[in-house]
Amino acid sequence: MVDDFLPPTPLKDSSNVWRNVISIVVFFFAMGSIGVYYFVQDDILLSNVSDVIGNVSLSPNLSVQTGGDVVFDPPAEVELSKLPELVGELLPPDHFGAEAIIVKDKESGVVLYGKNEYKLHSVASITKLMSARVFLEKEIDWDEVVEVTSQNVVDTHMYAGDMYSIDELWRAALVGSSNKAILTLANALGWPQVAFVERMNQKAEELGMADTKFREPTGLDAGNISTASDLAILLDDVLDSEKIRETLLGKEVDLYSNERKKAHHIWNTNWLLLGWIPHDIVDFRGGKTGYIPAAGYNFTMQVADEYGHVINVVVLGADSHEARFTEARDVARHVFEVYEWGE
Fold first, then answer.
1. Contact yes or no for 153/180 (Cβ under 8 A)
2. Residues 104, 106, 128, 203: which is the catalytic one?
3. Which of 71, 193, 231, 306 lies deepest, with the highest CB count within 10 Å?
């Protein structure tokens, strides 16, 4: 009965034998053709890689692999001797009244002090740092004169219909935190505002600001949200721009409206820079304020000590206008006291 499950024995037929031989020959011929095809394709692929790379010469530690990417050697390890080392005792988070704080070492990116640094918070006018960053991506005629926007937003520095140069608007936006100025600049690019804001969000993604979202360029919308950690990244990036850095260090701006025949003086909103809040900061490299009721009093700054150690400081949700500056000053001083940098 077992035989019922075995295949029948095939009949011997000479024609079947020759048919099998011919099939084997055809199979090996086809495989050889495929091999030649892929050899040629590989050669074309390598040529295409060469076309894409162009005249760029690969350094000895790089190589091109077919079907992959340019292969890089692993990055060099960070020299541990240069990292900030905690030598004192950090103050507890509740020592400071602000809702969120972060202090980061610029060179290494190490967080030196934190309080709710990953908590979502309304950005307020710190938003203007990203707006300025996006604005600089276009070719700009700083002497061009444009009309101030008629958009109905809160502003104490200029009025719809005033005519100012792009440079005047730029300084009014970053020094005096003028809402109409930053909106006028955004409109001057010829983009719809929605496109400008979309580019702000794209830039945030590019910088790795994963918890940041912008709805408009001024910061008046409480839906412009971020974290102290993300804003430290933004501050570090924008202060690498000489144009932004120099503008933020301007103490005042003088405007004159030909349309209203009236002069207007604007002080920087950063009271540490003006010296209206006492401090012993050796090297102040820039800062930006922000306030709306939903955010409280925000402030971010970059400072350095006498040895050139640079830190980024973000304070969000301080209790008062003055407190955002005093807490930023005090936490920076504290960090410089309890950390040592290897030389």
1. yes
2. 128
3. 231
SS3 label, residue 137: coil
Q: Is 47 a catalytic residue?
A: no
pLDDT tens by residue, 211-221: 999 999 999 99
178 is catalytic: no
Contact at 8 Å (CB) between 316 and 98? yes
pLDDT > 70? residue 59: no
Query: What would the mean pLDDT of 290-304 be, rounded to a whole number?
Result: 98
Q: Tell me the C-alpha distance between 184 and 160, whole Å.
A: 10
Distances in Å between the Cα of 23 and the Cα atoms of 14, 29, 305 are 15, 10, 82
Domains by residue range for the chain, with CATH: 2-71 (no CATH), 84-341 (3.40.710.10)
**59 labelled catalytic:** no
Contact (CB, 8 A) for 324 and 299: yes
Q: Which of 132, 81, 24 is nearest to 342 (CA)?
A: 81
H-state helical runs in the chain: 14-53, 127-135, 166-175, 179-188, 193-207, 228-238, 242-248, 271-274, 321-338
Q: Quote the distance between the C-alpha of residue 40 and its chain's center.
A: 44
What is the model's pTM?
A: 0.77
The contacts of residue 260 (CB under 8 Å, 6+ apart) are 159, 162
| Separation between Cα atoms, residue 315 and residue 84, nearest integer Å | 21
Among residues 122, 125, 178, 226, the one annotated as catalytic is 125
**pLDDT 10s digits, 147-195:** 999 999 999 999 999 999 999 999 999 999 999 999 999 999 999 999 9
Which of 104, 122, 131, 177 is catalytic? The answer is: 177
Helix, strand and coil percent figures for the chain, each rounded to 5: 40, 20, 40
